[in-house]
């Protein structure tokens, strides 16, 4: 079950495909025009902040370990996007609706991970559709790609796309997407990899619904990058700069200096971090920011202040010493 933003508009006036159908869960639209305007605005604004919503009872129950949020955090850092929030919630319609609406309103770029498989508890699509008063749509291009790329399971050798069956209905669940007829199709249903049939559904202009399977999650986010770049603060996607220092001093030994340093660099948008490494001989201090030249100028001062040295990766100068004061 755990197996689960802005192109130029073309064909804006083309008629709505006749395969659209309302799900039983969809609510009547309160204001289609205002909703579409809001979604269009969301899809065009500069991406400064991001949020990640992990959906799945199995994560909260300890059956599955969430690695997607950590991967997404690195992805955001590499692009200079400020990841502000990560939440894990159950496969519960009310929780999904509340979180999706809140995050869409507060953050520029929102992703969800999980809950878009073929089983009864895969309710992400229907819940997010309900959150924004949208119908569910059996998306024909996604269906065509699924037929062409996916292969029958070895336990279902007699499966046929031409025969109505529980198996076919289950597969259809994975391409029945929240759909706004006032927004161009190519802005709300993206295919980010030629060898994947899995659609990336974009709702309200900034919610991107991803599968939970890490391999698919990572591949689809990577494929989405060219679409995001024009909307970043830094369109070249250089991201944020991080400098690491290794110090033999305990945190109590660098606390006073780091407090002074933090106050000094705050106006330049630089954050100072301190991270104890239990059982290791060295602790880590970091500078994080966008002003690379200014941060590089601080290196000698910080090395002296923490009685340490700059390193390229944490732990590269560890020795055999063990416990120390933290």
Explain this structure.
GO terms for molecular function: FAD diphosphatase activity. This is MoaB/Mog domain-containing protein. Residues 300-326 are annotated as: Disordered. InterPro entries: FLAD1_M, MoaB/Mog-like_dom_sf, MoaB/Mog_dom. This protein folds into 2 domains: 32-231, MoaB/Mog-like domain (Molybdenum Cofactor Biosythetic Enzyme, Chain A, 3-Layer(aba) Sandwich); 241-311, 2-Layer Sandwich (Alpha-Beta Plaits), CATH 3.30.70.1130. A 6-stranded mixed β-sheet has the order 2-1-3-8-7-6, with helices on both faces. It is an alpha/beta fold and 326 residues long. 35% of the residues lie in helices and 18% in strands.
How would you summarize this macromolecular structure in one to three sentences?
The chain is an alpha/beta fold and 326 residues long. It has twelve helices and twelve strands. A hairpin with a 3-residue loop joins β7 and β8 (207-210).
What layout of secondary structure does this protein have?
Blueprint: H1 32-44, E1 49-55, H2 57-60, H3 68-79, E2 82-89, H4 93-106, E3 109-113, H5 124-131, E4 136-138, H6 140-149, H7 166-172, E5 176-178, H8 185-188, E6 189-190, E7 200-203, E8 207-210, H9 214-228, E9 241-247, H10 251-265, E10 271-275, E11 283-289, H11 292-297, H12 299-305, E12 309-311
Parallel strand pairs: 1-2, 1-3, 3-8
Antiparallel strand pairs: 4-5, 6-7, 7-8, 9-11, 9-12, 10-11
Helix pairs in contact: 3-9, 4-5
């Amino acid at each position: 079950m755990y197996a689960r933003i802005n192109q130029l508009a073309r064909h804006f006036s083309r008629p709505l495909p006749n395969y659209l159908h309302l799900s039983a869960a969809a609510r009547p639209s309160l204001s289609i025009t205002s909703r579409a305007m809001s979604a269009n605005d969301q899809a065009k604004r500069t991406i400064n902040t991001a949020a990640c919503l992990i959906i799945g009872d199995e994560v909260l129950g300890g059956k599955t370990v969430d690695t997607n949020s950590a991967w997404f955090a690195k992805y955001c850092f590499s692009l200079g996007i400020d990841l502000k929030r990560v939440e894990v919630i159950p496969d519960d319609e009310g929780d999904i609706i509340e979180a999706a609406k809140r995050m869409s309103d507060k953050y520029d770029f929102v992703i969800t991970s999980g809950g878009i498989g073929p089983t009864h508890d895969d309710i992400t699509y229907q819940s997010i559709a309900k959150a924004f008063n949208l119908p569910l749509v059996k998306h024909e291009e996604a269906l065509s790609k699924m037929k062409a790329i996916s292969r029958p399971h070895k336990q279902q050798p007699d499966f046929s796309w031409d025969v109505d069956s529980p198996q076919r209905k289950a597969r259809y669940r994975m391409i029945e997407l929240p759909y706004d007829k006032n927004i161009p199709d190519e802005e709300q249903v993206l295919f980010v990899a030629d060898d994947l049939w899995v659609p990336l559904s974009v709702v309200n202009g900034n919610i991107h619904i991803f599968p939970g399977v890490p391999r698919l999650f990572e591949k689809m986010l990577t494929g989405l990058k060219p679409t995001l770049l024009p909307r970043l603060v830094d369109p070249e996607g250089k991201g944020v700069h991080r400098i690491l220092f290794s110090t033999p001093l305990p945190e109590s030994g660098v606390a006073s200096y780091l407090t002074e340093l933090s106050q000094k660099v705050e106006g330049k948008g630089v954050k100072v971090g301190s991270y104890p490494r239990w059982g290791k001989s060295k602790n880590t201090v970091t500078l994080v920011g966008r002003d690379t030249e200014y941060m590089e100028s601080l290196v000698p001062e910080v090395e002296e202040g923490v009685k340490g040295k700059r390193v390229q990766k944490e732990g590269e100068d560890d020795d055999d010493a063990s416990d120390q004061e933290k």
